[in-house]
Design a protein that fits this description.
By secondary structure, this protein is mainly alpha-helical. About 75% of the residues lie in helices and about 0% in strands. The chain is built from three helices and no strands. It is rod-shaped, with a radius of gyration of 19 Å.
Length: about 90
């Protein structure tokens, strides 16, 4: 019985380490996307105020926005929305 408990404890520690590692990587990816989207949103709003937003720019913004949203909904990072204050961006 002692070896089963050791095995389960070792398994829980390994799973916890992997989950933590992937959560940290997801958090870093989210932060990188935030930096990109801040710049893109500023440019998007400037171009929109001028009245011309190129289709390729809209596609790039939409791609980055959907990637940002997808990163927040992963298994290892879905809870981060309630813990960290991630900014909201204009939906494409």
């Amino acid at each position: 019985m002692g070896s089963v408990k050791k095995f389960l404890l070792l398994y829980a520690v390994i799973v916890g380490l992997f989950y933590g590692m992937f959560a940290v990587l997801s958090y870093n990816s989210i932060q990188i996307k935030i930096e990109k989207l801040e710049v893109l949103e500023e440019q998007y709003l400037e171009k929109e105020a001028q009245g011309e937003v190129p289709y390729s720019f809209k596609q790039q913004y939409a791609k980055e926005y959907h990637e940002y949203d997808r990163l927040q909904n992963r298994l290892q990072s879905f809870w981060m929305k309630w813990v960290f204050d991630f900014p909201e961006f204009k939906q494409p």
